[in-house]
TrEMBL record:
Pfam families: HATPase_c (PF02518), HisKA_3 (PF07730), TPR_12 (PF13424), TPR_8 (PF13181). Residues 1-19 form the signal peptide. The chain crosses the membrane at residues 388-408. Gene3D superfamilies: 1.20.5.1930, Histidine kinase-like ATPase, C-terminal domain, Tetratricopeptide repeat domain. This is Tetratricopeptide repeat-containing protein. One of its GO terms (molecular function) is protein dimerization activity. Residues 329-382 form a coiled coil. Residues 442-630 form the Histidine kinase domain. GO terms for cellular component: membrane. Keywords: Coiled coil, Kinase, Membrane, Signal, Transferase, Transmembrane, Transmembrane helix, Two-component regulatory system. SMART domains: HATPase_c, TPR.
C-alpha cells in the first residue's frame, strides 16, 4: 500500500510539474510575440523577425493552437509591411487553417482579410475581393457587435474601398471609405479615423474633387502629427503632394514631397518608392523631363520589390510619358507595353464585373439582413407592447385590489375605533359608577361613624336622665345635636361644594382647610399672588385634587401639622401640600392605596405636572404645577370631575 501511495504521489507530482512547464512555455509564446511587436514598432526589423520565428517554432512544438494563431496573424502583418507578399500569404493561410480548427469566427475574418491584402498587393484583385467579402460576411452575421467587432468591420470596409479604387471604381470606393469613417467616428478612435481618411482623400483626388481632398488630407496630416504616427504622416504628405500637383501648385507639391523624404528614415520599408514617384510626376508636369527621369529611374529600382501591381501601373504610365517627353521613344514604347500588360491583367472588364458582382451580392445580403432585422425588431416591438399592455393591466388590477384593501382596511379600522370607543365609554361609565359607589360607601361610613354615633349618644342621654339632671342634660343634648349638624354640613360640603362655584376656588380651599383642622391636626392655608382664572370644571377638579392630598394626610400621615399653599404666577398655578407625618418611600408608591394614584390621574387630566417627595419619618411634600391655558382645554371637554377618595 505504501509503495502504491508513493507511486501515485510521484505521478501526481510529475503531472503537476509537466503542467507548470507547459503553462510556462505557452506564456513564453505570448511573450515572444509581444516582444517582437515592440521591436517592430521601434524599427528593429531583424530582431522582431527573429522573435516572431522563435514564437512560431515554440507554438508548433507545443501544439499550442492559440499561440500559433496569434503568431501567424501578427507575423503576416509584419511581412506585409515589409513587402513580402508571398510569405505573408502563406502565414495568412496558416491563420485561416488554425482559426477554422478552433471554430473562431472572429479570427477567421482576420485571416480572410489578410489573404485578401496579399492578393490585392499581387494584383489578383478578383481573389482579393472574394476573400474580403467572406470577411465582411462573418462581420455582418454578428447581431450585437462589440466595439472590437465594429473596429474589424471598419477595417474591412476600408480595405474594400482601397480595392475598388485600384479598380478605378471611384464612386464605390468613396462610399466604403465614408462607411469606414463613420464607424471610426462612432468608436471615437482617432487612429482609425486617420486611416479611413486616407482612402477618402485618394477617392476625392482621383474624382477631381481637389478642394475636398485637400481638406481631408490636412485632417489626416493633423491626426498623424498629433498621434506621432510616422507612417500616417508620411501618407498624408504624399497624398497632399499629389493634390497640390494636380492643382498645378508645383512648388508646394515639391516642398510637401521633400517633407515625406525627411520621414523615410523613421518609416517602415515600402514608402520611399511613393515619394520618388511623386517627385518624378511633379517634375514631369513642370516639363522638367531630365529631373523627372532621374527620380523615375530611382523609383523603378525599388518598384519591382516594393510596389503592389496596381501601383506599378501608374509608375509605368508616368515613365512612358517622361520618356516620350525626352524623345526616348523606344524606352517609352517598352514602358507603355508593360503598362498595358499589367493594366489588362489587373483592370480587365471581366475582373471588374466579377468584383462588382461580389459587391452586389454582399449588398443584397446586407439589405436582406436589414429587412430581416427590421421584421425582427417590429416583432420584438409588438411583443414588447403586448408585455407592456399585460403589465399595465396587471398594474391597474393591482392598484384596484390595493385600493379595495385600503378601503376595507379603513372601514375595519373605523369599526375597531368605534368598538374601542364604546369599550372605553363603558369603562369610563363603570369607573364612574364605581366612584359613585365608593362615594356612597364613604358617606355611609361618615354618617355611621360620625352623625349616627352622636345621635346614639344623645338618645342614651335622653333615656338615662332623671328629673334632677334635666338642666345639665339639656345642655349636653344641645351640644351633641350641634355637633351632628356640623358633621352633616361637612359631609354636604365634601359631596357637593357649592362654595367652589359660589365663593370661588381660593375661598373654598381655605374653608375646607378650616373644617379639616382640629385639635389633633393644625392645617394652615396660604394664598400667594393672584391666582389665574380657571373654568369652574377645572377649579372643581383642582379642589378634588387638594381634597385627595389632604385626605391622604389625615388618614395615613399621622401628622400634627400641615400646610396647603396656592401660588399664582401669571398663567401658572402652583399647589403645595406638606405635612410633618411619618412619611413613606416614593419608590413603593405603586404598592400604596389608590389615593395618590387618583391625585396623579387628575393632575394629568389638567395636563399639569406633580412631584411627591417623602421619606420614612420625614413627612411628605406634594408639589403640583398647572398651566391655566392647558387646564382650560380640560374644561372644554365638558367632563365632570368625580371624587372617589
Amino acid at each position: 500500500m505504501k509503495q502504491l501511495s508513493f507511486l501515485c504521489f510521484s505521478l501526481f507530482m510529475l503531472t503537476s510539474a509537466k503542467c507548470q512547464v507547459a503553462h510556462h512555455d505557452t506564456a513564453r509564446v505570448y511573450q515572444l510575440i509581444e516582444t517582437a511587436r515592440e521591436k517592430q514598432q521601434q524599427g528593429l526589423a531583424d530582431a522582431a523577425e527573429k522573435d516572431f520565428r522563435q514564437a512560431g517554432t515554440l507554438a508548433k512544438q507545443l501544439n499550442f493552437d492559440r499561440g500559433l494563431l496569434m503568431y501567424a496573424g501578427h507575423y503576416c502583418v509584419f511581412l506585409y509591411h515589409h513587402v513580402r507578399y508571398e510569405e505573408a500569404l502563406s502565414l495568412a493561410q496558416v491563420q485561416l487553417e488554425v482559426s477554422q480548427r478552433l471554430d473562431d469566427k472572429q479570427r477567421m475574418g482576420y485571416a480572410f482579410n489578410n489573404i485578401s491584402l496579399q492578393y490585392q498587393a499581387q494584383g489578383k484583385l478578383q481573389q482579393a475581393a472574394a476573400f474580403l467579402m467572406r470577411a465582411l460576411e462573418i462581420s455582418s452575421e454578428i447581431k450585437h457587435p462589440t466595439l472590437r467587432d465594429l473596429s474589424d468591420r471598419r477595417k474591412y470596409y476600408n480595405n474594400l474601398s482601397s480595392l475598388l479604387l485600384d479598380m478605378h471604381d471611384l464612386g464605390k470606393g468613396k462610399e466604403y471609405a465614408i462607411k469606414a469613417l463613420e464607424i471610426a467616428e462612432q468608436l471615437q478612435d482617432t487612429i482609425a479615423i486617420g486611416w479611413s481618411l486616407v482612402n477618402l482623400t485618394v477617392a476625392e483626388a482621383m474624382a477631381g474633387k481637389l478642394a475636398d481632398a485637400e481638406k481631408h488630407g490636412l485632417e489626416l496630416l493633423a491626426i498623424g502629427q498629433s498621434q506621432r504616427d510616422i507612417e500616417m504622416e508620411l501618407k498624408a504628405h504624399n497624398n497632399l503632394g499629389d493634390i497640390y500637383r494636380m492643382q498645378k501648385r508645383f512648388a508646394l507639391a515639391l516642398e510637401t514631397f521633400k517633407k515625406s523624404q525627411r520621414l523615410l528614415d523613421k518609416a517602415p520599408p515600402g514608402n520611399e518608392v511613393y515619394v520618388l514617384m511623386g517627385i518624378s510626376s511633379t517634375y514631369k508636369d513642370l516639363g522638367h523631363y531630365e529631373a523627372a527621369d532621374t527620380y523615375f529611374r530611382r523609383a523603378s529600382v525599388l518598384a519591382e520589390e516594393e510596389l503592389a501591381k496596381p501601383q506599378l501601373i501608374e509608375l509605368y504610365r508616368s515613365g512612358a510619358e517622361i520618356k516620350e517627353g525626352m524623345g526616348a521613344y523606344k524606352e517609352a514604347l517598352a514602358l507603355r507595353k508593360r503598362y498595358e500588360q499589367i493594366n489588362d491583367s489587373v483592370r480587365n472588364q471581366e475582373i471588374h464585373n466579377t468584383i462588382q458582382e461580389l459587391e452586389v451580392k454582399y449588398q443584397t445580403s446586407e439589405k436582406e439582413k436589414a429587412l430581416a432585422e427590421r421584421d425582427l425588431k417590429i416583432s420584438e416591438q409588438r411583443s414588447e407592447m403586448a408585455r407592456l399592455n399585460t403589465w399595465i393591466m396587471l398594474s391597474v388590477s393591482f392598484v384596484a385590489i390595493l385600493a379595495m384593501i385600503l378601503v376595507f382596511s379603513r372601514l375595519i379600522n373605523q369599526q375597531k375605533r368605534k368598538t374601542e370607543a364604546t369599550v372605553q365609554a363603558n369603562r369610563l361609565l363603570e369607573a364612574q359608577l364605581q366612584g359613585e359607589e365608593k362615594e356612597r360607601a364613604r358617606t355611609a361610613r361618615e354618617l355611621h361613624d360620625g352623625v349616627a354615633s352622636i345621635l346614639s349618644a344623645a338618645k342614651l342621654h335622653i333615656h338615662a336622665r332623671d328629673d334632677g339632671e334635666r338642666p345639665h342634660a339639656n345642655i349636653l343634648l344641645g351640644q351633641l345635636i350641634e355637633t351632628a349638624v356640623q358633621e352633616i354640613r361637612n359631609i354636604s360640603h365634601n359631596l357637593a361644594p357649592e362654595v367652589v362655584l359660589d365663593e370661588g376656588f381660593a375661598h373654598a380651599v381655605q374653608e375646607y382647610c378650616r373644617r379639616v383642622s382640629h385639635s389633633g391636626l393644625r392645617l394652615e392655608c396660604y394664598i400667594v399672588g393672584t391666582l389665574p382664572k380657571l373654568d369652574k370644571n377645572a377649579e372643581l377638579l383642582l379642589y378634588r385634587i387638594i381634597q385627595e392630598a389632604v385626605a391622604n394626610l389625615v388618614k395615613h400621615a399621622e401628622a400634627t401639622e400641615g400646610i396647603v399653599q396656592l401660588v399664582g404666577d401669571g398663567p401658572r398655578l402652583s399647589i403645595t401640600v406638606e405635612d410633618n407625618g411619618r412619611g413613606f418611600d416614593p419608590a413603593n408608591l405603586t404598592e400604596k392605596g389608590i389615593g395618590l394614584k387618583n391625585l396623579i390621574s387628575r393632575v394629568q387630566l389638567l395636563q399639569g405636572s406633580q412631584e411627591v417627595r417623602s421619606a420614612p419619618g420625614q413627612g411628605t411634600s406634594i408639589y403640583i404645577e398647572i398651566d391655566a391655558a392647558k387646564a382650560m382645554q380640560y374644561a372644554a371637554t365638558g367632563l365632570d370631575a368625580q371624587y372617589s377618595g
